Amino acid sequence: MRIGFRADASRSLGTGHVMRCATLAEQLKKQGVDVFFMCRKRPGDLVDWLMEAGMDVHMITGADPVSWEEDAARCVQVLDNIGTVDWLVVDHYLLDARWEEVLSARVGGVMVIDDLADRPHRCGVLLDQNLHKAGEAGYANLLPQGATCLFGPAYALLREEFYHYDKKRKERLGRLDRVLVSFGGSDPNNDTWKVVQALKRLADTPKVDVVVGGAYPYKQELRKFCQQEKMSLHVQTKRMARLMQQADVAFGAGGSSVWERCYMKLPTVVIEAADNQTGVLSALKERGAVLYLGRSEQVTTDQIYEQLALLKNDPSLLVNLSRAAGALMEKHRPHAVADFLTGRSPDD
């Protein structure tokens, strides 16, 4: 069986699309599936990281930005050289039903990963792992009749390292001894810097783990700061689950990592880093699963410091956040998406 992925990463776009596809690809490889990626070359594209992880990557060349027609034509060229492809998974906000219509003629089936519900799709399967107030109804007029919909955090794509901690997940008891700061692979708004500056101002600074990706553009300055303030810096770490397990609270954005934090019952203070995070953060806030500070351009270091002081003075906030976050993942089904694509039952 062969399954392909079309996803891009960059310093401006972020790394979430490629990261969640890579998670699914790893699960498929363990089931004996031959996987490959089609990615556009640009700064922060994660192509080298994918290749180091053993992924077969085909570069999509041409102008940037590029029309959907040219992108489709380039992908068809790749597929013509590969042979039979059973599924093509596309995770890309700039591609829609027109692109999918062209590619569907070259593959057995198309699966779309989306969380915006803002454009039509031509696919057999749609995965939206987020919570939305509109829910499935938000896609009512955007999908072909008969499409299979995989909705909600039950289908969240979590890396295998998190399942190793399944029996060790713990509700937090209100302590504030260790803080995790992680705003995705590229953090284009540099919210990381605001948070570490606020942590520096605490009279009794907790242990701090700062995580950034290889695409983060301010690594040199951040490394120097962390050395001075005795904070631990982790670049493109493979130990995220362990860091989440050790932390008492996290500061992060509203991308796919929200489900990793919920799975680990980790209380989180969230800063909205992009428009596509609005819906899921609204739903999480409504369920008491995150503390929402606001949009990145509106959040200041002073506000972050004030939130830290509040958490230190009211331990019950962390306890309630931990319980609410964990409750959202009670119905999570490990490997459910990979199992669906390969036709395996959960007991196989």
Q: How many discrete domains? A: 2
Range of helix content: 25-40%
Flag low-confidence runs. none
Sketch the topology as an H/E string, one letter per element: EHEHEHEHEEEHEHEHEHEHEHEHHH
Strand order within the widest sheet? 3-2-1-4-5-6-7
Beta-strand percentage range: 15-25%
Class of secondary structure makeup: alpha/beta
For this structure, the CATH topology of the largest domain is Rossmann fold
Which descriptor suits the 3D outline? globular
Count of helical stretches: 13
Can you tell me about this structure?
α7 (219-229) links the parallel β9 and β10 (232-235). The protein folds into two domains: 2-158 and 332-342, Rossmann fold (3-Layer(aba) Sandwich), CATH 3.40.50; 162-328, Glycogen Phosphorylase B (Rossmann fold, 3-Layer(aba) Sandwich), CATH 3.40.50. A seven-stranded parallel β-sheet has the order 3-2-1-4-5-6-7, with helices on both faces. The chain has a six-stranded parallel β-sheet with strand order 10-9-8-11-12-13, sandwiched between helices. The protein is α/β, with parallel strands linked by helices. The protein contains 13 helices and 13 strands.
